[in-house]
Amino acid sequence: MRTYEKTHPWIKFSVNLSQVHPQLWINLGECKSKCEHITGVPLRPTTAKKLHQLYLAKGVLATTAIEGNTLSEEEVLKHLEGKLKLPPSREYLAQEIDNIIKGCNQITDAIASGSPPGLCLERIKELNAIVLEKLQFEEGVIPGRIRKYSVGVARYRGAPWEDCEYLLERLCDWLNGEDFKSRPGEGIIYAIIKAVVAHLYLAWIHPFGDGNGRTARLVEFQILISSGVPAPAAHLLSNHYNLTRSEYYRQLEQASISGGEFPPFISYAVQGFLDGLRSQLEIIRDQQWDIVWRNYVHEQFRARTKTTSQRRQRELILELSRKTEPVPIPELKQISPAMAEAYARKTNKTIQRDINTLIKMGLAEKTTQGLRAKKEIILSYLPVKAEDAS
Prior knowledge:
The protein is an all-alpha fold. It has helices at residues 3-7, 22-40, 45-65, 73-80, 91-112, 121-131, 164-175, 187-205, 212-226, 231-234, 236-243, 245-257, 263-300, 308-321, 337-342, 348-360; strands at 152-153, 156-157, 364-366, 371-373. The strands form two sheets. A two-stranded antiparallel ribbon has the order 1-2. Strands 3-4 form a two-stranded antiparallel sheet.
């Protein structure tokens, strides 16, 4: 009998999902559908780049923030753009970010080149070496090397050091084995479960002297993106763990206390992943809605841009479309610098005439708060609802 079997009996390389709540399978199916939707969605190159940068920043920040990195999301975005200046005492924070970005880029580049990285003992060691590159750490910690001493996080003690290499090899064999072999068309579903299980077991084993959590999250990212999960979505689990940090630690502890029965941890992770996917699709939907709306406005004015007033009306409705709330009528002239210039020498009768034209065309409507663009007119198949009597 190995030592870990006495000290960590919950590490048993098995998972029973036969009794989980049906909601887990519903959520996994929705995750698969939404990943496929994001993968095939057409976006402006600038929008796609912005989305990628935003979720890369969220993901790498979350990966490091759980372990103490204090940079803000805004600072990470500035760092990605090469605009962040930190004092010497905080430069290590940017290095932690750079290391995670390096790991993510190495993974995506390998997949893009047709040589996806496998999951094995040496690969996990390699990822830990990337995580700790150019950083300061305690004496005895060697990047990419299995620890030779006991470690703990809060009340949790890592697996016995003499069993760590054996446990990592067992973990890789298990994750690469039949339990996680997907059926056709279900690769993403199996990959999500596999990524969560890999993360959990690496947290339990805690094989390195430092950077275990960051290494686990890079392994998780590698599993997800290798299965076809789009890059922005592959960062969502790390972001979820960071946003719900206290619940994350509670779920980790409960999974070990329960004797290794961890379907609740999987359900917790999958729900967070799904929430993140929904949020991403909302951003994508808004971008597509804006593109189609602007095309629609241009179509409506195609034969109505011969005069200055018609062109002004078109620009007014396009500027109004950028606002999420109705704009008070007196403020319309100042809705943008371009509109301020267009109405500089115009009377209130002119702005009222423009408003009436846009309303008559069905592009705008008056409310008690002001004027709003009726962007919803281009949405098809909205749910049928009874009109509010009020």
